[in-house]
Amino acid sequence: MFEFDPEKHYPKETESRVVIRFQDCDPLQHLNNAKYFDYFFNAREDQVPKLYGVEMIDFIRKYKAAWVVYNHNISYVRPARVGEWVRIMSRLLWYDHHSLVVEYYMTDDSKKELKTVLWTTMRYVTVHDGKSTDHQGAVLDFLKATSENLDIKQMTIYDRVKMLKARLTE
Fold first, then answer.
1. By mean pLDDT, which of 2-6, 52-56, 69-73 is the weakest?
2. Contact 122, 67 (CB under 8 A)
3. CA 154 to chain CA mean position, Å
4. What are the CA-CA distances from residue 89 to residues 20, 48, 105 (Å)?
5. What is the spatial distance between Cα 162 and Cα 17, in angstroms, rounded to a whole number?
6. For 65-114, where are the alpha helices, taking DSSP H only?
7. What is the pTM of this model?
8. Torsion sign over Cα 125, 96, 55, 38
9. If we measure between CA atoms, which residue out of 141, 137, 145 comes closest to residue 64?
10. N or C: which end of the chain has fewer CB atoms below 10 A?
11. CA distances from 167 to 52, 75, 88, 111, 112 (A)
12. Which InterPro entries does this UniProt record tie to the protein (predicted)?
C-alpha cells in the first residue's frame, strides 16, 4: 500500500523501453493503432509498482473503488515499426475529487521523435454499484505525490503534441 513520505522524491513520469513486436503490426509493418493502448497500459502497469511501491489492486481492495475509463484521446504522430525499440512515458497529468487524466506518449529509442500521445480520462467509482466516489486516504496521497496537476481545461491534445515535440528537440 502506498504510504506518503514527505522526505521522498516521487518522479512524475514513468519510462519503459520496449520493442515493437511483429504480431502487433499491420501489413505495412506499422504498429496497429489499437495495439498502442496495450503497449501504453502494460508499460504503466510495470512501472508504477517499481517507482511508487504501489499495486493498484491494493487500492481497489482497501477502498472498494476503482478507476474506469470513459474517454481516450489519441494523436498518432509518426508510426512505430516492427522491430523498433521505443520509449514509453506516462504521467498523471491532472486529477480532481473523482476523476483523473493519465498521459502516455511514445518516442523513438533516442527520445528525439514523438510517435504517439494518448490521454486517458478515468472516473473513480465504487466496485459495488459503479457510482462515482471521491478519492480518499492513500489514494489521494498517491495522486498528490505523483501528479503534474496541469490545467488541462485550457489545453488540447494538439497543444500537448506541440509541447512534447518542442521538449524533445531541446
1. 2-6
2. yes
3. 20
4. 15, 11, 5
5. 23
6. none
7. 0.94
8. positive
9. 137
10. C
11. 25, 17, 15, 10, 9
12. HotDog_dom_sf (IPR029069)
